[in-house]
């Protein structure tokens, strides 16, 4: 067990903090980060954005650091992690080694991870379950199973390969009688800006990832080589104790990575950049920024700076997919027509001082609410998606028809499909609703931010909420409280 | 907004990876780590352990690094974190600044954290909710709310002070119209080795932390200074959307830290080390190791090495509490009597080769199972508790009385109350049950390990499971499967 003595201050193995070889890392880090920064600037310009505007100034650096951090598994060695925590475990000193070997199955369940999809460069979420059967009196520190899984998750991946790599690393590190990995993976769908697609999105509190592309994969070696083996039976039984039913969810899918929804967008006769440019319903692409091929080349350079070979067959379409995704959030013209609304007709109203409105009329109105309107947007600080639901409350004169939900949904789309921050989104939706339908508006936006999970923060399960109020909702706490109660009632009942 | 340009490669602010000032940190780190290592060796020896045995060799280093990592908040500046991500957010360019200021309430919910209790040095779990109302067009990157909370969580804390410090840091960093923090905190109870106490422990899959000491605290500044304010009404309403009902759970507790269960152990007339030594039911303390005062002094030195002043009033009893806790896990004499069992009487059986047993008799037996037997233990690799439930299955000759649950509980206690690893615990319980009641035994241990959460791994919600089998359960897959199904049925129905 000489391995136990090595690396006294090799902090990376224990706490994830690097304490050695920092001079070397620094130089490589600076170079790779700078290269990615440059590429991200090209992408932002390709979206028609001003890279010098306040919210975007540091975005290229943020994206670069997040990507490097999110793929640091390329620069970590799983073997070191395992070997620093192998313990001889002989059983009772009295020698009743009756059970044979070191004992039975050992598993760690529900390890939350994220990884980056090699087909589209977007992060995907992973629930990882690892098990092994010790042999030769070797057991490994339980947290190392999680650490090793993370090394391979922090690379550009595809679920089956991820499972295989974790398994193989543990197999060669621990030399167990058998080792197995079960992964449940969730990938963001490729949302279209039409209503039908959004029926998949649910209130973030549900956290059931409905509407996400999901696969379960499993892989095993040694006693787990055969999927019908007794060892697998034990493993799956222990997962069932926690409500994880892999047999039922287990999806057989080909080794090619068709689980990524972006793959299905590939035109059948796709070659080169043929299907790169998919303009969003009616939006005209920017004429001033870099061309699509330049954006695709920039993403290829990012792959390179992460330590991958962009010409590897898995990556051939990746830059194009990522650009397709980004292009969805191209800065729209503000005077465009939005699903039948002509914003120009509201411009005079936009200039009006809304404080002039006679509030006595509004007091006669009735509280209307439209809840759980789904939306997607792109965080302008990290170029990562955030999504969730919007609740809109407004007062309407008696007898008037309530606003159609589809119109509110259109407004949410209009402000969502661009580089955004949630605070601004809430305000913009509120102000647009006010322009069109009246001055007493309240908007609550509830969202999950991919950037809270996938860049070193890793706070799985957090959600954000923002409130924006105008008119009566600003001045009358009772009106605001009434609307919040309406949302609460609806949410509590599973709405 | 000059702050936006500072610290181009100050990686700590964005990704938690330090890239600067490493030479300085290194020296301090090495010194502090070495000091803690020395202190942990004293503690281990005080528990009667051999610090050179295989499983403990690296424990002092592991504990030292975990504690330094877990208290790195002392060496971080919240102000830098906030100021690196302040964004001017003026609202719509068209100037419809109707809502006043930058908009309404912004909150981040369900941030999972852990912290260290200043009264006993054990980690406690935190669910943190942060909100603020922007002012002067200043909004902060959403993930920074989580980052700042973490800076103060990674210190020795007490819930109310933690909430106050997070709040104050955000207040001075963002200068908002108001800022508020709600914390839900769970502290491990001080378990006694009698059965009654253990009725609090539940299957780890419930994750409802029943049986833990829980407090909810809230603190606010600016518009949140008054607990009955409109701003608080909005915040609490948004928490309700996610099922967090703070009003109901809100516990008023005095500013002194009586929430820590270890405080209640202080003798009323406690002075100095009067109540330090609490031997565990019948266990005789080691006579060879360091004295209790030496152990208490060692813990005081650890506090010092974490950057705290052990003479601060909050820390006066902390070393004693931690030693009290540790002493619970003092290595017992193997020949002690265990709640009425005399192990000596089973020694001859222990020596017997169990393979000689006539299995034809056992085939007549009936599967018995005793499920969800609670246990506590101490991870010998990290000196942190792990706990959960044990399921025991065995075959018993027809007509014989089933084993009393209390006896199995005693065996779980006997093997749990010491420095352990889960794999060994499973095997030792199995072998003891076999010695006493028969050779066909299967044990499943399900546990939550504090060390998986509180030392940089931070995988909240993971759980481990281990299987150990003997006799018929080793040779007959049907028997094993039958028992696993029994556990599954019981677990699924909420047992």
From TrEMBL, chains A, B:
Its EC number is 3.5.4.16. GO terms for molecular function: GTP binding; GTP cyclohydrolase I activity; zinc ion binding. Residues 36-188, 297-487 form the GTP cyclohydrolase I domain. Coiled coil: none annotated. SUPFAM superfamilies: Tetrahydrobiopterin biosynthesis enzymes-like. Keywords: Hydrolase. GO terms for biological process: tetrahydrobiopterin biosynthetic process; tetrahydrofolate biosynthetic process. Belongs to the GTP cyclohydrolase I family. This is GTP cyclohydrolase 1. It comes from Stephania cephalantha.
